[in-house]
Design a protein that fits this description.
Layout: E1 2-6, H1 17-24, E2 32-37, H2 38-44, E3 48-50, H3 54-64, E4 67-70, E5 75-79, E6 82-85, E7 97-99, H4 105-120, E8 125-134, E9 141-149, E10 154-156, E11 172-174, H5 175-187, E12 196-200, H6 225-230
Parallel strand pairs: 2-8
Antiparallel strand pairs: 1-12, 2-12, 3-7, 4-5, 5-6, 8-9, 10-11
Helix pairs in contact: 1-4
């Protein structure tokens, strides 16, 4: 597997994202996966406003979250079926603006993939929208796929045997987040200005229609469900 980040010019609010990508990546190949920073998606879809105050940011976090709990460092929230900080609302690398994630991220990923397939003349192409996440009891951020399109994001290993012939009972391999994490290592978090990345020879199955529900896990079965219950972090509404 080969991972290549691309340094770009600054992307501006409401700019044409497919055209922007075309200017910076001259060629994509069949079965490539393009990884795109969520900040580009926010700006592309106009999800930005001038930062005015901490109170404004807090209100936006509450508005954009299906559940929100104030903690010492940030808001612990649920949005788009994922646990994330601050409901995806961010002001880093935003030049004085507050950015927030579009509601239907999978529609954004599919639209971008469709436009890029046409632009590059491709039949099989994957797209991942990545954002920074924090794992419980781990220092530092890690890249995660807030949405993806064009490939199967979860590989089901249940029923298959391990090296000693024992059938696996619960193992699902999260390919989408794994690829996003690998790409984010090369994309950086500061002033690298590399919001695009291409993954070649990824071990995934390319599909014409993505099923977002494959990566969503029922809250009642989730490993962290007892913790969510203990801190009263429950989903109030879908966002």
């Amino acid at each position: 597997m080969q991972i290549t980040p691309y340094r770009t010019a600054l992307f501006k609010l409401n700019d044409n994202l497919p055209a922007f990508i075309g200017r910076h990546i001259t060629q994509l190949h069949e079965q490539d996966i393009l990884v795109v920073s969520s900040k580009l998606i926010c700006l592309w879809k106009g999800c930005a406003t001038q930062y005015k105050s901490a109170h404004q940011k807090e209100n936006l976090i509450r508005q954009e979250s299906a559940a929100a709990l104030k903690t010492k460092l940030a808001w612990l929230t649920i949005k788009s079926g994922m646990v994330m900080t601050n409901g995806g609302v961010d002001e880093s690398n935003a030049n004085g603006q507050l950015l927030w994630l579009p509601r239907d991220l999978y529609a954004c990923a599919e639209q971008l993939r469709r436009d890029l397939k046409k632009l590059y003349g491709l039949k099989k192409l994957g797209v991942i929208i990545t954002d920074s996440m924090i794992l419980p009891l781990r220092a530092g951020v890690i890249g995660a796929a807030v949405a993806y399109s064009g490939f199967t994001g979860v590989r089901d290993e249940r029923g298959k045997k391990d090296i000693f012939g024992k059938p696996l009972k619960t193992t699902l391999v999260n390919l989408a987040d794994g690829l996003a994490a690998a790409a984010a290592v090369t994309m950086g978090e500061r002033n690298e200005q590399t919001p695009l990345c291409v993954i070649q020879n990824a071990p995934v199955k390319f599909v014409s229609k993505t099923n977002p529900s494959e990566i969503s896990y029922p809250p009642e079965q989730d490993l962290y469900a007892p913790l969510f219950k203990a801190v009263k972090l429950t989903v109030r509404r879908k966002k």
